[in-house]
Amino acid sequence: CRASEGKPMKQRLLVVANRLPVSAVRRGEDSWSLDISAGGLVSALLGVRDVDAKWIGWAGVNVPDEVGQRALTKALAEKRCIPVFLDEEIVHQYYNGYCNNILWPLFHYLGLPQEDRLATTRSFQSQFDAYKRANQMFADVVNEHYEEGDVVWCHDYHLMFLPKCLKDFNGKMKVGWFLHTPFPSSEIHRTLPSRSELLKSVLAADLVGFHTYDYARHFVSACTRILGLEGTPEGVEDQGKLTRVAAFPIGIDSDRFKRALELPAVKVHINELTQRFAGRKVMLGVDRLDMIKGIPQKILAFEKFLEENPEWRDKVVLLQIAVPTRTDVPEYQKLTSQVHEIVGRINGRFGTLTAVPIHHLDRSLDFHALCALYAVTDVALVTSLRDGMNLVSYEFVACQGAKKGVLILSEFAGAAQSLGAGALLVNPWNVTEVAKSIGYALNMPSDEREKRHRHNYAHVTTHTAQDWAETFVSELNDTVVEAQLRTRQ
Ligand code: ADQ
């Protein structure tokens, strides 16, 4: 930290992510209204001590004119945000194309796009070029705002090319990169046509972080097998330059959830829900409606449970809250119809004139409604086919101080490595196994429930988002200092 008039100044942190944590709506030629999202990353970074953080990213809107850009930049500055302006064409190629159509499915083990293979192969190179161009645009904004000593923390699969762009501009910049999704086995990564270029770009960072040790190990294997580099206990070495690779499991701001449960409005909501579902056990799923979240598999497992346990048919209800995402993409539209079809069939099959077994909502819930739902739930079902971490499992646990409900958790979510001892772990593809776990969870004796809950609650309330961010930033600082010492020796 630099000193000014005897007082140490806070270290500046530039957080670079594809999306700024705001939704921006244009109200006039030069006026914008901004809504800051209070998501996990924002509260994580607000909690980091002695750091002065600013965000750099895309505001999620196309602003072709200069007047609009200037007005948005000014409005965002008050929220400590700096925009990167991307036009529609680049968003289409970089974001919809390379990020969401190629990297997202690949990193979640869904492989490269199956439909219309030839078209994908043809557009692959142009999408990768757009990806690199977009990453350079983020880098240009970082470079413009960078001051000596700043820490630059790049986030996620959208910005794998960014560490290289930043280090090319200034080799002394402290650069960290963190991946929020899984990093797949090197055998999956090697199918990617741009596999080497992406790995090399990430290796330009000083510190590379993942949610779990397995993802870090996969990344190091990809570097050794594909690039022929040397893996060391600290990371990856290339001609004397060490890139540190480590696991930094994210957490949540658990106090925010605990505080919400004390609010009168949330208590009213909890009472309403308790009355509404009196006499029935409540099971809950909260997910973005994405292929990786395993929603159809979860609902089919619930159907199997009802099929095999008729005595439970009017005693349990599944509430599935699914926020629609990427609604313009045919595959996601197909997933929505598939889920609706399965839910309709099951409700037709097991419903009565007065009750249905599944309530499925295609929407997002506000924070207080979500907390109330978590609090009244007896069994949460998180059955992702792959998930970097999965914060819903953490949020459920944080809201269960009173009820001590059961978490059924996919072994393919990063969270399985931290909450595995308290949760019932399942293979989400095995519908019979998940159905059995539902039965086990609903019949679990209270002392076992309490023991499992205690384990998870202790983890969630002590491994918070603030700790995660603080640890990453301090390790990044240490890594740079160690590297300087090594080069001096
Ligand atoms: P996501 O895939 O978005 O994030 P997740 O970790 O589950 O997944 O977080 C989702 C967030 O959205 C949670 O805070 C949840 O409360 C909220 N949410 C989901 N459905 C909702 C609904 N219907 N209504 C309201 N809120 C809803 C990526 C990776 C994850 C990783 C995170 C953080 O894919 O694996 O855990 O980043 O690193």
Automatic annotation (TrEMBL):
Transmembrane segments: none annotated. This is alpha,alpha-trehalose-phosphate synthase (UDP-forming). It comes from the Eukaryota. It comes from Dendrobium catenatum. In the C-terminal section; belongs to the trehalose phosphatase family. In the N-terminal section; belongs to the glycosyltransferase 20 family.
